[in-house]
Amino acid sequence: MGGDEGVRVMMAGVALARHRHEGLRFTLFGDEARIKAALDNHPNLRAASEVVHASDVVSAGDKPSVAIRKKASSMSMAIAAVKAGEAGAAVSSGNTGALMAMAKLALRTMPGIDRPALAALLPTLGDNDVVMLDLGANTECDARNLVQFAVMGAAYARIAFDLERPRVRIMNIGTEDMKGTEEIRDAAAILRAATSLPLSFDGFTEGDKIGRGEADVIVSDGFSGNVALKTAEGTARFVTDLLRTAFTSSIRSKIGFLISKPAMHLLKHHLDPNNHNGAVFLGLNGVVVKSHGSANDKGVANAVHVAARLLEEDITRRIAADMAGVSALSGVASKQELAAK
Amino acid sequence: MGGDEGVRVMMAGVALARHRHEGLRFTLFGDEARIKAALDNHPNLRAASEVVHASDVVSAGDKPSVAIRKKASSMSMAIAAVKAGEAGAAVSSGNTGALMAMAKLALRTMPGIDRPALAALLPTLGDNDVVMLDLGANTECDARNLVQFAVMGAAYARIAFDLERPRVRIMNIGTEDMKGTEEIRDAAAILRAATSLPLSFDGFTEGDKIGRGEADVIVSDGFSGNVALKTAEGTARFVTDLLRTAFTSSIRSKIGFLISKPAMHLLKHHLDPNNHNGAVFLGLNGVVVKSHGSANDKGVANAVHVAARLLEEDITRRIAADMAGVSALSGVASKQELAAK
User: Would you say which domain of life the source belongs to (chains A, B) (predicted)?
Assistant: First the structure.
């Protein structure tokens, strides 16, 4: 959906992803006429796609309770296709709250998982990105939720970064054991005891260390995770805005800018949110990826790539297997918690 | 304290502040010999100072419960001087948790305030900085706490930015009324009803809008406030690190950097945390300011300036007067809350 321009960008992005994943086939839900018009520019994609008309539209302002009744919307139909086994994964750039509500209702939460979480990759100065979750699906979280997020995030990191035992940390306001809420300290105690899980729990981290490359997964409740994500985005934009102002402040600095252009391009590439587009709802019986509403074709291609990778590596099965390890250890963990009190 | 170098930087900073606030007098608590040696370079400051030896040291790793027993530490003695009325304000660059615990214990919370909060100024692209609070003093907060933070933050903003009615927003994970926790929504309802307060409550804001200049005060619980502050610091450093890498990636970009140096200096000045050094504990019967442990002389001078301004403008009295307005309105607010449910 999203008007002529929105459909064009979406199709261009899917066409890019099609080049990267030759085997994929696509079902494109939305305004049939607009999609078909946009596909004229992408014969390769057209050959691998089926177009299905969606007569309803979920708008950005729709409350989730209103949106879930729109069964003929593109996001509802895409999720229904995943549920029916006709599609492996759904990718949407629509209203996040609506997408989350529909996905939960239709696909249900996985056995062993109490609540799904929204996860995304963020850039670091290290060898790989970092998986952050939850980014806003759950305003308040207990220790069980946080432990489950750790397991799900680690499963994602193993796929995304090809690691055996991703380094997991919990976001806190200090790194000492006594810092933070009871929920956080309890989750840390459980993870410390669960040594057989395919992850290395390294304790707490703080907001200023997200991009340092010291962790492969950072776990937080959805409120502070959302605040951290948006603050990072806002600050990156703030600094680049200042940089632009500085470079246009004099003739001399404008000349300097022209000479430094390749360097600035490198910076821009690193900070371009399109390179990290595609947030995943982890913990559902099916893969659902949210693409940012303002993503360009490269960004959309990234979101489709994320969905394809999680599907190829069967993330749902991996999480289920890992959660079995947590259940077996929960008796030990509880004793640890009691001992810590 | 903080070794020879720490004392030298602290004294150089206080000397700078002495130039800006001619009338101020200082009592300098710490290692007497080191302080006196450092004062040799600042005869002006020496003439306006008294040195008092502190035989105890609070270290960075001391738990608050251990630190509060160190009565002969510089931070404990400085706070005791405020309590005794011998000093108007205390400034320290020591352990934040210890300083907070000592200040609460000795100075007590103001009438009408349940919990003090840590507030600081952050840079924006607007006309003035923004007051953010709480930055970590209170891990969990209820609606009453958040309302009190709003009143205290507004009192600070009126002094720092010379405004009549600062624009106050609450940090949330969306700007719609239904977003966030119950505590946040209740606090918003109370502030919306309290129209006679000397502030303009403008609803919610999000992490990506902290630096936009759309609010003069941003209120949050101490957990997400701390996450936001540290994420902003970490991201600014991340971007400038990338920038440095980009500029040293080729001969061409190095030349560009040399030419752009004045522009880069402008950027560095804007992002230098020393220009925003000095976090205040608001809500105590006395002014206590925390200077960052890694601040340079300009940073220390800023922290002293913050303390001096709050003292000159009598922030404690202002907050007390404003809180009377909230109490008178609390009946109305409760009805509003009920109506909203």
Answer: Bacteria
